[in-house]
Each structure stands twice: as C-alpha cells, then as structure tokens.
Amino acid sequence: MDPxxxxxxxxxGSRPPELAGRDAILxxxxxxxxxxxxxxxxxxxxxxxxxxxxxxxxxxxxxxIAEAEGFLVSRVEAPEETNLAGLLYPEMRKVxxxxxxxxxxxxxxxxxxxxxxxFASVFNIEVAGVNIGxxxxxxxxxxxxxxMQHDLPDLFDQIGRAAQAANKGWVLLIDEVQYLSQQDLSAxxxxxxxxxxxxxxxxxxxxxxPQVARLAGxxxxxxERLFNYPAVGALDEEAAAKAIEKPILDEEASISNAALAxxxxxxxxYPFFLQELASFSWNNALxxxxxxxxxxxxxxxxxxxxxxxxxxxxxxRLTKAEVGFVKAMATLGDGPYQVADIARAxxxxxxxxxxxxxxxxxxxxxxxxxxxxxxxxxxxxxxxxRRKHISxx
Length: 393
Fold this sequence. Notes:
5-stranded parallel sheet; 3-stranded antiparallel sheet
C-alpha cells in the first residue's frame, strides 16, 4: 500500500490519527478549564502513565482544546535536573505581557511583570533578548524573597488576577513532572493551592510517570485533594481497534478483524506500539485490505525498530551495574518485582543494591509500585531485555 498515504504516526509525542479511548480525560480537562474561567473551583489534573502511553499527546490535545476556548496556554517539559524558576519564568512573562495589552487587566499584569523582574534577579535567571527598558520597574515586596514557596504563589496570584480582569484563563502544561525536585514540586503545589482557594482562572495539567502521585503527596500532603490523577494506560480492545481501523477506513482501505485482533494481542494495547505495528503493516500490505498475514509478517520488522530505537535509547542511559540490575529483574518474569527477589537474583543484599535502585529510579527507568516492589516504566521492556540481552549471555 502507498507509504505516502500511511496514516499512522509512531513518533515521540506525535498525535495519532485517531485519539481513541481518552474522551473522559479530555472532557475532564475541558470542564476544569470552563469552571476556572467562571471563577468556580476547578481541580488541576496530573496524568500518570508509563512511557509510550500517550501522555504527551494528551497534553498537546488539551492545549489545543484550551486555545480554541480562548485560553492562554503555556507548554513546558521538565528535563532532568531542571530548575522550575527558570522553566516557568519565560512562560509567566509571556502570559503577563499578553494580558498587559488588555486595559482592564493592565494594572495586575504590570504588577506581575514587576514581580517577575524581582523573581529573575533573586533566582539568577538569564533574561536573554529582553529589552528591560520597556518593562515595568521592579514591584517592591513582590516575588523577591528567594523562597519559591512564597514567590511563585504571589506571581500566580497576580497573573490570575490579570486573567480574571481580562475574562481569560491560563492553562499551564508541564510534561515529565517526575523530574522536578521535591522543593520545586512543593512550591508548584503551594501556588496551585493558593489560586484554587482564591478562584483564579488558572488550570494546571501535568504529566509524568506513575510515581508522581507519591512524589506530590510527599511534597505536600494535601496534593491528593488538589489534583485528579487519571491513569493513562493501555487501550482496551475496542478503543485499540478504533484507533487502528478508523484511519485506515479514512484512507479508503480496510483491515480484517483477525488483523485487528493480532495487532492488539502483540502490542497489549499500548498506543505507541499500536502505531508502530499498524504503520509497518500498512507499508507491507498489498492492499486494499490489511490481513492477519500482513501483521504477522510485519512483526519482526516492528520488533527490530523498537529494539533499536524505543528500547535501546533507554537501556543505553544505564551504567553496567544498572544494566545488571534490570537484567536481574527481567529474569524473574514480568513485574511487579519484589526487591528481595531482585537482590537474590543478583546474589547481593538488598542494602547493597540500594544505590543502583535509586539511580535507575531517578533516570525514570523503574518505579516503586508499592512498598518493596518495583516495575519498569517502559511497557514490554522485560521482553526486550530477555530477547536481546539475557539470551545473548
């Protein structure tokens, strides 16, 4: 079939042609935004899921929905060892500048911009390419303490007041929340709690690995009441079939029920893997219908692509000792894995494997599913380890 007409998009954060099975999450985000702009209580949302489940895609889609509703939207990704002050400063400044153009909001927006000058100074933020001469002067007493838990809530409050005066809202989207330090996550939660209490039209949508719920709770105990935590996991068989079949039908082709079942069986319904296998199946099929044999013949090519890309780039971030740790996990079958069992598989004590465990968690490769248990953050990663590494030993 024509590869130029291939509708599938197996890329990092690429929007699939059919965003199936996520309607409830998108509707919840839309309702939160709608309530916030009316000054009503609106819970922020923290999307939790493994790698390849489509969290980034959902953030982008929520951003598009919010923009269509007239919201100002800021989208950032938290890299490892990130600094929240430096991450948020340019977004807060951009939003404040936009609101300063609305006469009714000018006073609060001007105060926010003055506070941001203080904020940039106390947190040593590089302000490249900004003509400070056209900015309002520093605002005495606003966001100048150097304590994020005091300064960030004050800035959010001023931006929220400006947005309220302008009859607008601000949606802040942050991806990879697990990389925020506990101090920064705590400051963000305090700021969101403040604007929620005061009814400011600001909504936060975050996305991260499953451990984010625990990290948020450790940062501030009331975080469990501040956020909704929808799980972004594998699609069920009905949603997976819709995600694959509808784009094919839109291209005036078809796929057999047996082929749909085969794709679901192999991928377990994980969105990225669905897109990958469906894409190869499209390219390899003679057409106009993709059949079960096309899927089976595309499986090897799909696995090779995943092994050399999606899985490999993650394994390559680990040290030799850390690779030994994840190999020991994979020898035990599929997770979750008891830490005591991992230690036994490595012929080590639990205490001695602690540093490797902590480092791999920090790198976002594994997470604690419960006290004393671990699992991979990458779906089907244990299969990859067994296929490519244990079998080669």
